Amino acid sequence: MKAVIYARFSSEKQNEASIEGQLRECMDYANFNSIDVIGNYIDRAQSAKTDHRPEFQKMIKDSYKHAFDCIIVWKLDRFARNRYDSAYYKNVLKKNGVRVISAKESISQGADGILLESILEGYAEYYSAELSEKVKRGMTENALKAKSNGVRPPFGYYVDDTDHYQIDETISPIIKEIFNLYVDGVKITEIAARLKERGVKNRGYELNYNAIFRILTNRKYIGEYKFGETVIPNAIPAIIDEQTFNAVQQRMARNKKAPARHRSEDDYLLTTKLFCGKCGAMMTGEIGTSKTSKQYRYYKCNRAKKKACDKKTVKKEWMEEIVLDEIKDLLANDDIISELADRIYELQMQEDNAATSIQAQLTGVETKLNNLVEAITQGIYSSATKKALDELEERKRNLEIELFEAQMRNPVLTKEQILFALYNFRKIDISTQEGKQRLIDGFVNSIYLYDDHFVVTYNYKGQSKTVSFEELNSSPLTSKGSPNANKSEHSCSGLFFM
User: Fold this and answer.
1) Is residue 495 pLDDT above 50, yes or no?
2) Which positions fall inside the Recombinase domain (predicted)?
3) Going by C-beta distance under 8 Å and a sequence separation of 6 or more, which residues neighbour residue 198?
4) Which residues constitute the domain of residue 358?
5) Which among 198, 223, 254 is the end of a domain?
6) How many Cβ atoms are within 10 Å of 270's Cβ, its own excluded?
7) DSSP 3-state assignment of 447?
């Protein structure tokens, strides 16, 4: 398993020593669990109460490259400013096959909050769709005028006072050089190395492979503006001619590498949830092959892989099905569902609601608009009135977008909505990997596996349940495999493998 570490300290209370401490403890956790750390993302003097954390945002973007499987943080409060943002970003990461792990919190503080995040994921999808429509309505006019729409301009451009793109004459020669070098056969890695030697940076960051790749594929450099399905040629000043741009795309097509790896259908659902009861290390998935070339899948203690623990392995399918059955038993209890809804509702009421402030501003703008329209109907109209009307309408559009963004990040759900979402967990299709994963992520905090039992801790008041294998032997679950099941070659039919 490959991981990156994310660390952050705020300027008010912490310093560089805090970063070093976070990194050390995260690295200790990784070493103990045999996790390969391939890099760090560090935000210095940054509060989690803002999204403007450059390294955090870079980490989220890098997750799309599928280079790492998990993110290790010292504590979960290092990750996001509130549970709503946490739900949003974890949902993005989950779609990219990346999980977030806390090095110091084996049982997450406020376990109910994890379940709230799971519920919010569904509502985030709804708000995202609504926001998309709002953004389209509010930005289409700007798009047709080829305005920036608040998007950061590509390297080599700047946005003027009228929100239009203009060429940065100090940077554009570098853009041309990048395109020409690539057309001449120079590799992207070599281009990056040459620019690094000269100290070329974009907003303080070196132009690495990915940055140069984005430059070489960005059609804005030939003057093309795109918003949604709207494409406007020659809408902004071009830095690169179409012939050069097309030559670059043709070379890229010839050199196209194999696509990034996709998540396997045989994903190990309990990754980052299942721990060794003997030594406490994480248990991760492995595949074994018998003499007849038959594959079998199991979970193995990461320290056992290094001969530092004698914990036996456990069959993947058996363990996952037992855990899913435990979750289904919990969901079948109406009293537990009702109590969960009460706790989650109280929990979200403790959060600050940014939408309230934006709604107040929007109401004020709408009042001014109504007053202005009333004045116009009474014959008070001039160029100044028209300008004021246009400015207020644009302000209203922007506030509507901000409001939907706030509602997406920080929705306030009614008790009925929460109950509805919890009951819908019963309807999740567990014949799919996605359905199984959603149930496990939403309800299971951790599982500690021993030789004769396991302890599952839920995201429900941090409550734990001990399940003995002796009990399972006297239940219908024995058909799924048990410690006493008959062993076939490599002992792959039983619960444990030696």
Assistant:
1) no
2) 154-258
3) none
4) 353-409
5) 254
6) 24
7) strand
Average pLDDT on 326-330 reads: 90
Angle between helix 334-349 and helix 111-144 axes, rounded to 10 deg: 60
Residue 261 belongs to a domain: no
- What token pair was written down for 273? 């949830």
In which band, very low, low, confident or very high, does the pLDDT at 432 lie, cut at 50, 70 and 90? confident
Say how many Å lie between the first and final Cα of the chain, rounded: 22
In contact, 494 and 331? CB cutoff 8 Å: no
Residues 335 and 290 in one domain: yes
How, if at all, do strands 99-102 and 70-73 pair?
parallel
Q: Which pLDDT belongs to residue 183? A: 92
Q: Are residues 218 and 341 in the same domain?
A: no
Say how many C-beta atoms besides its own lie within 10 A of residue 98's C-beta: 22
What's the Rg (C-alpha) of the chain? 27
Q: Would 42 be classed as within a structural domain?
A: yes
CA-based nearest residue to 55, from 204, 216, 159, 213: 204
Q: What pLDDT is stored for residue 484 in this prediction?
A: 36
Reduced to 3 states, what is the DSSP secondary structure of residue 38? strand
* pLDDT attached to residue 82: 59
Measure the CA–CA gap between 439 and 462, rounded to whole angstroms: 16
254, 283, 315 — which closes off a domain? 254
- For 9-47, how does the pLDDT look when each residue is reduced to its tens digit (9 = 90+)? 765 444 545 778 888 899 999 998 889 999 999 887 655
**How many CB atoms within 10 Å of residue 434?**
12
Residue 230 CB neighbours (<10 A): 13
pLDDT tens digits along 363-407: 899 898 888 888 877 777 788 888 888 888 888 888 887 776 666
Identify the CA nearest to 126 among candidates 456, 413, 449. Answer: 413
State the average pLDDT for the chain.
78
H runs (alpha helix) in 304-414 = 316-331, 334-349, 354-377, 383-409
**Encoded amino acid at 183, one letter:** V
Confidence (pLDDT) at 120:
61
pLDDT at 22: 85
Q: Is residue 259 part of a domain?
A: no
445 and 332 within one domain: yes
Residue in the block written with tokens 């070659």: 489
Q: Quick one: residue 429, left, alpha or beta (phi over 0 = left, psi -120 to 50 = alpha)?
A: beta
Residue with token string 């494409």: 231
The residue to which tokens 């570490």 are assigned: 5
> Where does the pLDDT of residue 177 fall: very low under 50, low under 70, confident under 90, or very high at 90 and above?
very high
In Å, what is the CA distance from 265 to each residue of 252, 421, 433, 434, 437?
30, 26, 7, 10, 12
Q: Is 173 exposed, middle or buried (0-12, 13-18, 19+ CB in 10 A)?
A: exposed
The answer to whether the beta carbons of residues 92 and 60 sit under 8 Å apart is yes
